[in-house]
Design brief:
By secondary structure, this protein is α/β, with parallel strands linked by helices. It contains five helices and five strands. The protein has a five-stranded parallel β-sheet with strand order 3-2-1-4-5, sandwiched between helices. The protein is globular, with a radius of gyration of 13 Å.
């Protein structure tokens, strides 16, 4: 809902990432929300989506490489977790796999 309000106010999702100095992004969770995040960020000249991560690494989203949780690249500034309802659990799992910043989408869009 917050994201939709931002769109009405002409606040771009990319600006939320730039404000937090996140330029190379990994999207965790390639469901409906993850797909929307990717589709908005891929248009950005400031943000680069490194890849997507999902428990189901067999998913396909045009233009996005989707990796499993054991294949997290290190060339990113942040992993943004789109299933915000399970953020703490996912963060705990990711902490065991990487030292990258891990934030929820909710934190990114809190302006």
């Amino acid at each position: 809902i917050k994201w939709m309000q931002m769109r009405e106010e002409k606040i771009l999702l990319e600006d939320c990432f730039v404000n937090k100095q996140y330029y190379r992004v990994i999207i965790y969770g390639i469901g409906e929300i993850g797909e929307l995040v990717y589709k908005e960020l891929r248009k950005s000249e400031k943000i680069s989506v490194v890849c997507g991560i999902d428990q189901n690494s067999n998913l396909y989203l045009e233009g996005l490489e989707i990796k499993g949780i054991d294949d997290i690249p290190i060339n990113a500034d942040v992993i943004v977790v789109t299933p915000v309802f399970a953020f703490e659990e996912i963060q705990e799992i990711l902490r065991k796999k990487t030292n990258l910043n891990i934030v929820s989408l909710e934190e990114i869009i809190s302006v």
